[in-house]
Amino acid sequence: MADKVDEKTLQQTSTWAVAVVCFFLLLFSIVIEKLIHKLGTWFKIKNKKALYEALEKVKAELMLMGFISLLLTIGQNYISQICVSESIAASMHPCSESEEAKKYPPKKKDTKNDEENSGRKLLELVQSYIPRRSLATKGYDKCAEKGKVAFVSSYGMHQLHIFIFVLAVCHVIYCIVTYALGKTKMRRWKRWEEETKTIEYQYSHADPERFRFARDTSFGRRHLNFWSKSTITLWIVCFFRQFFGSVTRVDYLTLRHGFIMAHLAPGSDGRFDFRKYIQRSLEEDFKTIVEISPVIWFVAVLFLLTNTNGLHSFLWQPFIPLVVILIVGTKLQVIITKLGLLIQEKGDIVKGMPLVQPGDHLFWFGRPRFILFLIHLVLFTNAFQLAFFAWTTYEFQLENCYHKTIVDVVIRISVGVIVQILCSYVTLPLYALVTQVSSTHIYTHT
């Protein structure tokens, strides 16, 4: 059996190898920095102020993660020297005792080498006084000599360091995917906006002298039915509507008309591009979504805490974002239907196009931005879980204590993809549309 060989220091390493590594690290960093700068310049040229501010927030989050990574590098020796008792260290492990014993069997004593090992004790004692940082290696547990266990080992700090990098990459990817899917959904609304410029639309929809029953209008036929009278059936129908035509032509045109009547001067119908306005509103919302608030960081820490044996977090964690986003999507559909019910409450006869009235009371706690916070929370926790899955697979192979079987892996990935598509393509554009009928909304874009 070959003797253990310590890794070489930089004094024992070729200078050309050190120079090559540093060159490519600098080259990669400079290229990324220039690309981000070019993207920011393009946003300024295109007058996309909200997207530029969102890019700045992404840069700030990456800087924060980089600072965390730096603290891990500097503090890993000091943290690994914090010793705790074995009873405390044995609590809340991701693996059960049997799994841990199987994956990490205790090393057997080699009696033949006892004499040789004792001869090396003096050398190890001298080396122990020389501080040495081993970021990417499995070091010796210095706490074992005291009969204790390291709070977090140096190698564990290294693995956490890799997780921070994976999380940063996933954060950037989910930001890009979220914005791209939202913009893709809104492209479908372009033909509806172009329709409002035609004479046929002005005659059939915008005629102010046309009287009809509220339930006979296109908006009324969609929302004023027997199921809308009961809260239970209303939520059931609205739950399924978010999957099949979450934003229909009649809903878009009715909310557009209500927004114009509430915020613009009379006669602006044919000149105002409501779709472009919502796109800019989406960019403003996107600026909020890319920022990671302290509350959301705290939720991420809770997710890490629950990855312990016995809680079976791999079975229920992926479904939390799914349940939340389904409730949010249902609530937004309920708001649209209740706008129709408010029209009918004012009278069975409507003059011209049905006019929805803005009102924050339709939103939870009277705060439309609370829904945006939930969407933000769902997107980050979903990206966090996918990053955690990628990291655990890289560090501990596909089947590990964090996801036991292939079925668990398939469920986690499938639910993560479904949540990302549902939230970015369905719920976020729907929120950007519905929030225009809030009474606190202020028209600020030109």
List keywords for this structure.
mainly alpha; two-stranded antiparallel sheet; 2% strand; elongated; disordered C terminus; membrane; calmodulin-binding; transmembrane helix
Description:
The protein is mainly alpha-helical and 446 residues long. Among the domains are: 16-46; 167-437, no CATH class. The chain is built from 18 helices and 4 strands. The strands form 2 sheets. A two-stranded antiparallel sheet has the order 1-2. α11 (231-241) packs across α16. The protein is elongated. The model is unreliable at 114-137 and 442-446 (pLDDT under 50). It is found in: Membrane. It is a multi-pass membrane protein. Belongs to the MLO family. This is MLO-like protein.
Mind sketching the topology for me?
Layout: H1 15-45, H2 49-80, E1 83-84, H3 86-89, H4 97-103, H5 114-119, H6 121-128, E2 149-150, H7 154-187, H8 190-195, H9 199-204, E3 211-213, H10 218-223, H11 231-241, H12 249-263, H13 274-289, H14 294-305, H15 313-316, H16 319-345, E4 349-351, H17 368-396, H18 406-434
Antiparallel strand pairs: 1-2, 3-4
Sketch the major β-sheet: 2 strands, antiparallel
Residue-averaged pLDDT: 76
What is the strand tally?
A: 4
Quaternary structure type? single chain
Order of secondary-structure elements: HHEHHHHEHHHEHHHHHHHEHH
Protein name: MLO-like protein
Subcellular location: Membrane
Membrane topology: Multi-pass membrane protein
Transmembrane segments: 16-37, 58-79, 160-181, 288-307, 319-343, 370-391, 411-434
